[in-house]
Design goal:
By secondary structure, the chain is mainly β. The protein has helices at residues 64-69, 161-166, 184-190, and strands spanning 8-18, 21-27, 40-43, 46-54, 57-63, 80-85, 104-114, 117-123, 137-140, 143-150, 155-158, 177-182. The protein has 3 helices and 12 strands. Strands 1-2-5-4-3-6 form a 6-stranded antiparallel β-barrel. A 6-stranded antiparallel β-barrel has the order 7-8-11-10-9-12. The longest helix has 7 residues, at 184-190. 32% of the residues are buried.
């Protein structure tokens, strides 16, 4: 479980493709503090297990399904990624509850900027739109955000200058893919199978 508050941006050192999985290697600093093999780390909002730590580089196995359903399959060496350690039960929750289980790869349909203003418009699958509500929570590439407008074909989020500086969202452009995790509470409330 995570909160969507990115702790640092890591740098992809490499991706090694194997049959049915890839090994992602990410250089990090801050999250290495208490990381060990078996630790859960959110990489661009995807919960991964640390399989090795050596020389400031974390390694994680990524299954084929994850490569197909998230933007981790599009990563290349030197790309930046958002990193967050798992939530501690004895701390503050500054974002919202994030599981690290990505629902969809959304597409940035527009980026609107002005002085101290950045709006991203994101398109996701039609069946997931019911989980997106104005002023509700959404997680994009591991970043907890508040939903702005919700339209038929997209929803908007607004980014403060701090978020643009300390996360990979500052580099997103029209046409880019972004990992989207809708609010877990909305899923339970709207799931008709729940409780029956």
């Amino acid at each position: 479980m995570f909160t969507g508050i990115v702790e640092e941006m890591g740098i992809v050192e490499g991706i090694v493709s194997k049959k049915n999985l890839s090994v992602l290697r990410v250089r990090a600093k801050k999250i290495l503090k208490d990381a060990k093999e078996g630790t859960s780390i959110a990489v661009n909002g995807v919960c991964l297990t640390v399989t090795r730590i050596k020389g400031g580089v974390l390694s994680s196995d990524i299954m084929r399904e994850t490569l197909l359903k998230t933007n981790l399959g599009k990563l290349k060496s030197k790309n930046r990624v958002n990193l967050e350690r798992a939530l501690k039960a004895n701390g503050r929750i500054d974002g919202h509850f994030v599981s690290g289980h990505v629902d969809d790869m959304g597409i940035v349909t527009d980026r609107i900027t002005g002085e101290n203003y950045t709006e991203l418009r994101i398109r996701i699958r039609k069946d997931l739109r019911k989980y997106i509500a104005p002023k509700g929570s959404v997680c994009l590439d591991g970043v907890s955000l508040t939903v702005g407008e919700v339209k038929k074909t997209y929803f908007s989020v607004y980014l403060i200058p701090f978020t643009l500086q300390v996360t990979t969202l500052g580099g997103l452009r029209k046409g880019d893919h972004v990992n989207v995790e809708t609010d877990v509470l909305a899923k339970y409330i709207l799931n008709k199978k729940y409780g029956s």
